[in-house]
Amino acid sequence: MAKINVLPKHLAELIAAGEVVERPASVVKELLENSIDSGADSVTVEIKNGGISYIRITDNGCGILREDIRNAFVSHATSKISTSEDLESIFTLGFRGEALASVSAVAKVDVMTCAAEDEIGTRYVIEYGEEILLDDAGCPKGTTIVVRDLFRKTPARMKFLKKDVTEANAVAGVVDRIALSHPEISFRFIREGKQVLVTSGNGDLLTCIREIFGKDFSSDLIPAEYSGNGVEVSGYVSRPVASRPNRNMQFFFLNNRLIKTGTGTAALSEGYKNSIMVGKFPSCVLNIKINPSLVDVNVHPAKTEVRFSDEKAVFNAVFYACRNALSRGDTPKQVNRVVTDFYKEPEKPAEQLKIVQPPKPATDFWQHIPAKPVETAPVVSETGVKPVEQVVEIKTDEPKRFIVASSPDSESAVEEKTEDILLKSPSVAPKPEPVTAPCEPEKKDFEEEFHLIGEAFKTYIMCEYKGKMVIIDKHAAHERIIYEKLKRENGERTPQLLLLPVTVTLSKEEYSAILDNLGLLNDAGFDVEDFGNGCVIVRECPMEISADDVQDVICEIAGRFVEKKQDVMFEKLDWIFHSVACRSAIKAGNFTSRLEMERFAKQLLSMPDIRYCPHGRPVLIEMTKRELEKNFGRI
């Protein structure tokens, strides 16, 4: 049996640090929580190189006494609790006494602090667990902690860090969440020397949300609150029309502490049941207040996982807060109508007005055929090709005369004609022949074997083909056809330029994922640029999707990138094609004309390789005449 050894102090600290400090964002979270517990109402965060080389946290809290500064960096040393009973009534964010010890074990830490009762401040320097300096310092009331060269002496941890911009976005996400949990505190975030976030600290949550996520996001929120059975819920939820394709913009706080709660997520979804589309999710910023004795926050070192003693009470509180918010605040959006002289009643009598009917829209959505000039084919005679005759108007002062002229290359004589019919009708060009879609088979045997029956539930196209009854799921089939088209055009497609670029507000994780995959989005037909502070701007998108769907598509793609970080580039691009195809395909329940159904069914049946949609569902099912007769008892 192997001998059991007691680990050295430094090695034990490194193991403990691995539970608390995973990346620069972990350091910022722990230090910010200490600043909040110190009673600060103003906190500044500054990072460089994503926080790997430099992190500075400055607050105006109570500071640290000189006689306590060494103990603050000892593992499991804390001012938050002293007895086991204190664990049942934790109101502070930190209480485990591991943060400073874990950070100092893997980085250089320089502390400048001054307590209210101290006449002079203190400077304390500790590098990778070893004390370097303890001396007097001139500094204002509060604490400033500078962390440098994170993981420099632990290369095994360093290699798991992402690019600087990715780590910086993770830090920004932490600052956003902590600022949302404490709107009464003013937060300032400086990134690479540039100030990117300032919150007012006026205590108004909606103002804080607007300062972090912008006006577009905050304008679609409605207040939510409920109190009962010892649980109080307050905050904001989104209107159903502003739903998103993922849950990345759902923020839950417990007694002003950021948490992950399956109970809250389930209650929120249930509260929006029958008010939101399937596959869509609401956004929220909700704070749950409960007696600390009824919840256990000492589940994980990160303190984001909690356990409730009464899950049902928490579920009901979140559920009714959502239902009440929707019943009171979910009103239809008002469209501001601009009244101009154009809308005034005309002065002329109604009988003198000439009503012009607008042109009818194209009825074929399966394939857009560009307009081409109609040319009359040359007539072949025994002597050769006869030039095309054209009607030309002779502009003179005399009454209108028309001539029929041959091709400009011909030197034949011009014959004047003054036929009355030409004078009555200025257009004598031959009527264009109807353009036949290339997808429509022209073989006679196909026409004889195909017969369109109709459509069921505005979803399934039914037809008879080669002695079988074929039922087609029009959305699944159309989605697969578009998906195959996108794959064939990979790298050669022509995107559409948006008349009004679309700005998309994302969570910091989504924002970072999009910036890491800009080249991939460009290959898929999107022109996406960084718009700063969690926003991207889309200037071009694939021709297949509508401009109204761009925001949802980008949010959906961003959520996928965050969820499936390990996917290779090919899988990511393939999934983008899936998303675009699904958005642009005709939806179940949409009206389809008989001509459209016939053309589409013929197109699909002429493509035997398409049998499943990109999600794996069948696009059609077949039933032979014998199977049908067997079901009716004929055989």
Describe the protein's topology.
Blueprint: H1 9-20, H2 24-37, E1 42-48, E2 54-59, H3 99-106, E3 108-114, E4 121-127, E5 130-137, E6 142-148, H4 155-158, H5 164-181, E7 186-191, E8 194-198, H6 205-213, H7 215-218, E9 221-228, E10 231-238, E11 250-254, E12 257-259, H8 262-271, E13 284-290, E14 295-296, E15 307-308, H9 311-329, E16 379-381, E17 384-386, E18 390-394, E19 401-405, E20 415-417, H10 420-424, H11 444-449, E21 450-456, E22 460-465, E23 468-473, H12 474-488, E24 496-505, H13 508-516, H14 518-523, E25 527-532, E26 535-541, H15 550-563, H16 569-584, H17 594-605, E27 620-624, H18 625-631
Parallel strand pairs: 1-7, 11-13
Antiparallel strand pairs: 1-2, 2-6, 3-4, 3-6, 4-5, 7-8, 9-10, 10-13, 11-12, 14-15, 16-17, 18-19, 19-20, 21-22, 22-23, 23-27, 24-26, 25-26
Helix pairs in contact: 1-3, 2-5, 5-13, 8-9, 12-16, 13-15, 15-16
Top keywords for this entry?
635 residues; alpha+beta; eight-stranded mixed β-sheet; five-stranded mixed β-sheet; 27 strands
3D structure, described in words:
The structure is a single chain. The termini are far apart. The strands form 7 sheets. Strands 5-4-3-6-2-1-7-8 form an 8-stranded mixed beta sheet, covered by helices on one side. Strand 1 (42-48) and strand 2 form a beta hairpin. The protein is built from 18 helices and 27 strands. The chain is α+β, with helices and mostly antiparallel strands and 635 residues long. Helix 2 (24-37) runs parallel beside helix 5 (164-181), helix 8 runs parallel beside helix 9 and helix 12 (474-488) packs across helix 16 (569-584).
